[in-house]
Amino acid sequence: MTVTPNVRLIGLFAVLALAIALPFFVGGYRVFQFTMVLDYAIAVFGANILTGYNGQIALGNGAFYAIGAYTVAILMNHSGLPYWATLPIAAAICFVAGFLFGLPALRLEGPYLALATFALAVATPQLLKFHGIEKWTGGVQGILLDKPDAPFAAINSDQWLYLFCLIVTVIMFVLGYNLLRGRTGRAIVAIRDHPMAASSMGIDTSLYKSLTFGVSAMFTGIAGALGALATQFVSPDSFTLFLSISFIVGVVVGGVATVSGAFFGAIFIEFVPPFADQISKAAPWAIYGVLLIFCVYAMPTGVAGLFRLLGRMIFRRQPPSSSEISPARLTP
Amino acid sequence: MPDGITNNTGPLLAIRGISVRFGGIVALNDVSFEIERGQICGLIGPNGAGKTTLFNCLSRLYEPQTGTITFDGHELLSQPRHRMAGLGIGRTFQNLALFRTMTVRHNIMVGGHSTTRGGFIANALRLPIVAREEARLVERTNALIETLDLGAVADTPIQGLPFGTQKRVELARALACEPKLLLLDEPAGGLNSEEVEKLRALILMVRERYGLTVLLVEHHMNLVMRVSDKVVALDFGRKIADGTPEEVRNAPDVIRAYLGADA
Ligand SMILES: Nc1ncnc2c1ncn2[C@@H]1O[C@H](COP(=O)(O)OP(=O)(O)O)[C@@H](O)[C@H]1O
Ligand SMILES: [Mg+2]
Which residue in chain B is spatially nearest to A174 when comparing CA positions? Predict the structure, then answer.
């Protein structure tokens, strides 16, 4: 407990320094891809808070991603607010939407909740095409956004967007990490492990589950908002069921109930499909499937779990440090 | 505290006319008794007598069809389940109910949930009050770890710890809410006679140290009779005796229903 937190902190700052330097060393499209990695990392973290930590299997977070994206697109085109000012609004709307969806979801457990959120994900693209709101959403056409300009002449707008996303990512991960490390985080996990005992310990399980739903939706919504800025375009068909499932894939590949796992999951989401496509133009999704199965078998606690195991071997540290919650597996 | 005159003179717990039915089964039938502050009250009765059901009414896991429960000036049955710990009722479970992926330390800290306040926003921003609360809780958790001799396993996950150790973790977790009333559901279950002796000393010690009132469900007659100030006996959901250990031991109904069989 004396050595490792420092090693970790140094490691963390090293990674952050690399992340800041990154857009100045790779080409334009790569910068965009890494912007999307940051963006997906926030979404995967959001899904993990709900599914990994709180045990509510959520297959519908793509809906909140869409709400976040559309909020930014609509506000930028109709309100004249600067792009950065639309983020808190998207966050608030998604939090409320998630909290409200979480209320009826309280009655559903395991696979039933999974199905209800699945239904949400399936319905999202069609709801977005609804005629009554076409004036705002642009219907099937979607909405085009302006690219945010860099505030300094020294960097181009792609690099700025990446750095802006990095700032938001750091803020969201600090907030999420704090939420999970203390009283609220223990309560969130206690509800997953034994809801009845959790309520006997004084935890208002209904309130906590709904709030956790809201928080998850908020993270996902912010990710959606950043995604809209990065792609400069939103349309109903960008928010398919596959996107929702991808977040859960990211959770499992990165590590259920881990914080850092979100980044590994996000890398998988962003880079594996094009990689699979390179390997086989004929059957890219088969390659994707094989890679996914390989990850799940080779790293049952995800990439983050594997790193933790390796770290423990290198530093010969037996017990996990007292402030961390151990990675888990999904048990519906 | 909404209805909050804390009554320091009357009994800490008053159970009046509690009945619980599950379909055709009457698990509790018009049960009434009181526990004074500082008492250790033993609750005995054959398997299926309704002891755990009574505990579950006290933690608001079951809703009795009739009756009232007054605890420390509060009408329990008008409060939600998650308020029980905050009012001062801590409990252990007959068949362990620990948080299996969490360490011993974290389990105990969850037990202290009701003694801390910080919500989602305060925690996400790690406000100074959260850090202060957390430091105090860590301190109390360390004290409980020491009291219950859990130091060697403090940072080990619950899963895989021996049964007796898990029972001590449950006791520590129950104590972490700083209870006035401690409900112990068969704490001696699965322990050998040496461990039962230790348990007896432990119950007396925590009562003394934390100024507790204890309601103890136990099959182990010897333990109940030697640790309790008062004993209540149930049979088929009805109270059949209530008095000092001596009185209850000699009550004809108890001898017939319970002791007669295996004492
Ligand atoms: N949740 C429940 N559903 C149906 N019957 C129950 C339930 N809980 C307890 N019972 C029944 O109530 C009776 C009392 O059980 P219990 O309180 O567990 O007894 P004890 O703890 O004294 O052994 C038993 O007949 C039991 O089967
Ligand atoms: Mg029982």
Answer: B124
What residue numbers bound the domain in which A83 lies?
A: 5-325
pLDDT digits (tens, 9 = 90+) for A249-273: 999 999 999 999 999 999 999 999 9
Ligand nearest to the CA of B234: 1
**Residue range(s) defining the domain that contains residue B106:** 93-177
Query: Which ligand gives the minimal distance to the CA of B62?
Result: 1
Please check whether residue A313 lies inside any domain of the structure: yes
Alpha-carbon dihedral A193, A194, A198, A203, rounded to 10 degrees: 60
In whole numbers, what is the pLDDT of chain B averaged over residues? 92
Contact present, A236 and B208 (Cβ < 8 Å): no
- A193: nearest CB among B99, B109, B113: B99
Q: What are phi and psi of B34, to 5 degrees?
A: -130, 155
3-class SS at A29?
A: helix
The pLDDT of residue A141 = 86
- The span from the CA of A192 to the CA of A53, in Å, is 7
Q: Is the dihedral of CA B194, B199, B200, B205 positive or negative?
A: positive
Give the residue, by CA position, lying nearest to ligand 1 atom 1.
Answer: B22
Q: Is the pLDDT of residue A332 over 80?
A: no
Best mutation site among B31, B51, B52 for ligand 1, i.e. most ligand atoms within 8 A of its Cβ?
B52
* Domain boundary, last residue among B121, B142, B177: B177
Is the same domain home to B106 and B232?
no
Given an 8 Å threshold on Cβ–Cβ distance, is A182 in contact with B134? yes
Residues B119 and B184 grouped into a single domain: no
CA A171 to chain centre: 13
CATH for A315: 1.10.3470
DSSP classification of residue B157 = B
Q: What's the pTM value of the predicted model, to 2 decimals?
A: 0.92
Is the residue at A330 inside a domain? no
Q: pLDDT tens across B159-214, in order?
A: 989 998 999 999 999 999 999 999 999 999 888 888 899 999 999 999 999 999 99
**pLDDT band for position A312 (cuts 50, 70, 90):** confident
Q: State the total domains in chain A.
A: 1
Residues B67 and B191 in one domain: yes
Residues of chain A whose C-beta is under 8 A from some C-beta in B? 175-176, 178-179, 182-187, 189-190, 192-194, 196-205, 211, 215, 257, 319-322, 325-326, 328
Domain count, chain B: 2
**A71-108: b (≥16 Cβ within 10 Å) or e:** bbbbbbeeeeeebeebbebbbebbbebbbebbeebeee
Q: Rounded to whole angstroms, how far apart are CA atoms A63 and A239?
A: 7
Is the residue at A331 inside a domain? no
Residue B74 near residue B3, CB atoms below 8 Å: yes
Check whether B6 has a pLDDT greater than 70. no
